[in-house]
């Protein structure tokens, strides 16, 4: 097994209608053959070049069923986890695509209603075992049978050398744009990054099952990513799946089924994670509009040359993972 591209969901069919996260990969990479996997019905496709595609219609159940299928050997497999996200307007614009160095989990934490928090707190979200927001836990025993604070980490590290290598291949890719998306960018006065056309960058993805939105939570996300990456990470993308996908992949890697050093994560912005100046947060929440189509398109555009490089030179990359220096 050489390469697997993983998408989270698809609208309708996976080819021939309006695209979701999976369809551009299916059609453009000619994933014409369906592969039957017990426990993961109708989710796996492949092409003649050795690229497999998986859409997780049933969540990580599909992923596990695929990896545990004894017909496949994933010890040398490269993985590209894709998907659309909310993008931080302080960093990039809708349609932009980011290669992650960490996937940060935004689910397991303590929460106090923001209306009842101490006056000097910025928000009511903070780490389990910590005494206030934006601080790491001091006592691991607050979480049960944990002996080391490091075990509480909510940042899943990826292979940064591989991420930099992928970014360098894709950074000059011509991305698509949309006239309405371009018009909407003008509303972001005071946010120069949000007003730029789509671009390829490096930055982290924060996964949380709850769909949050707004400036206060965006501030929390920026700080949460910095906290768990010890100031090295940059919050760029927010979504609802990346933390569960990478948590499962870490388990599969620890059991010897996959190589964690060959996992890449590529997220594209379909909307902003907070409203533009002067817009009510309830009007902005969930308004992905034309940004979705651009995000679907650019995700495949940025990822495709990385897939092609590995498949075209498999003899080079089978036993040696490509790395780019800092």
From TrEMBL:
<dbReference type="InterPro" id="IPR009486">
    <property type="entry name" value="Pur_nuclsid_perm"/>
</dbReference>
<dbReference type="Pfam" id="PF06516">
    <property type="entry name" value="NUP"/>
</dbReference>
<dbReference type="GO" id="GO:0055085">
    <property type="term" value="P:transmembrane transport"/>
</dbReference>
<protein>
    <submittedName>
        <fullName>Purine nucleoside permease</fullName>
    </submittedName>
</protein>
């Amino acid at each position: 097994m050489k390469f697997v591209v993983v998408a989270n969901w698809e609208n309708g069919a996976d080819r021939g209608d309006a695209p979701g996260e999976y369809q551009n990969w299916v059609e453009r990479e000619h994933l014409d053959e369906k592969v039957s996997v017990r426990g993961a019905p109708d989710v796996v496709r492949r092409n003649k070049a050795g690229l497999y595609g998986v859409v997780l219609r049933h969540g990580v159940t599909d992923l596990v069923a695929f990896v545990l299928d004894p017909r496949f050997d994933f010890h040398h497999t490269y993985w590209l986890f894709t998907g659309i996200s909310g993008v931080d307007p302080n960093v990039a614009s809708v349609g932009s695509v980011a290669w992650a160095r960490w996937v940060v989990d935004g689910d397991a934490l303590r929460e106090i209603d923001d209306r009842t928090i101490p006056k000097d707190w910025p928000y009511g979200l903070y780490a389990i075992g910590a005494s206030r927001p934006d601080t790491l836990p001091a006592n691991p025993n607050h979480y049960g049978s944990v002996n080391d604070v490091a075990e509480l980490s909510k940042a899943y590290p990826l292979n940064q050398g591989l991420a930099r290598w992928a970014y360098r291949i894709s950074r000059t890719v011509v991305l698509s744009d949309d006239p309405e998306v371009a018009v909407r960018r003008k509303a972001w006065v005071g946010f120069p990054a949000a007003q730029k056309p789509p671009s390829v960058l490096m930055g982290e993805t924060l996964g949380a099952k709850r769909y949050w939105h707004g400036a206060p939570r965006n501030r929390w996300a920026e700080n949460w990513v910095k906290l768990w990456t010890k100031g090295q990470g940059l919050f760029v993308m927010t979504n609802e799946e990346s933390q569960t996908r990478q948590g499962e992949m870490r388990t599969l890697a620890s059991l010897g089924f996959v190589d964690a050093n060959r996992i890449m994560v590529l997220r594209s912005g379909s909307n902003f994670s907070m409203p533009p100046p002067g817009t009510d947060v309830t009007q902005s929440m969930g308004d992905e509009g034309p940004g979705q189509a651009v995000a679907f398109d650019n995700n495949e555009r940025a990822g495709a040359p990385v897939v092609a490089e590995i498949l075209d030179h498999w003899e080079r990359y089978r036993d040696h993972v490509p790395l780019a220096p800092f």
